[in-house]
Backbone:
């Protein structure tokens, strides 16, 4: 299990990102990034957003959702039933602690984990509308405050 940047031990799953061409930059809304083909961690309880970009190609952005996993619910229920039939205070306490730490992520999973993205080339002169904006240069423009413009 990989950890999601800024979310400590929150339950996560990895999304596998493959692009054509390979070597594109894939980033999550949590700040994790990699060069494709690669794996990115996303929170199990809420998924996340992935942005894929490469010079000369349109930037692609998509949302990965999550939902309740019947398998995770069944595993958690089975674990609790086994411990209830043979109560050990330490085991019960550890299971309860693990369930609290997992929160909703303990019974959730990503709806989709494998992504194959074919990036579309930019036409000559075409602008990539999802690309990050170019920061201002910081150039100062002098303003003459000595001129009275109120007349």
Residues:
């Amino acid at each position: 299990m990989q950890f999601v940047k800024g979310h400590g031990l929150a339950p996560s799953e990895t999304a596998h990102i493959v692009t054509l061409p390979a070597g594109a930059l894939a980033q999550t809304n949590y700040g994790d990034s990699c060069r494709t083909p690669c794996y990115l961690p996303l929170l199990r309880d809420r998924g996340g957003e992935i942005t894929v970009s490469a010079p000369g190609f349109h930037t692609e952005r998509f949302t990965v959702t999550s939902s309740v996993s019947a398998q995770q619910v069944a595993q958690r229920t089975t674990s609790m039933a086994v411990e209830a039939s043979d109560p050990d205070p330490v085991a019960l306490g550890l299971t309860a602690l693990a369930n609290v730490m997992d929160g909703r992520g303990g019974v959730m999973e990503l709806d989709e984990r494998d992504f194959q993205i074919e990036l579309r080339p930019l036409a000559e002169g075409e602008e990539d509308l999802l690309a990050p904006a170019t920061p201002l240069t910081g150039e100062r423009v002098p303003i003459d405050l000595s001129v009275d413009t109120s007349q």
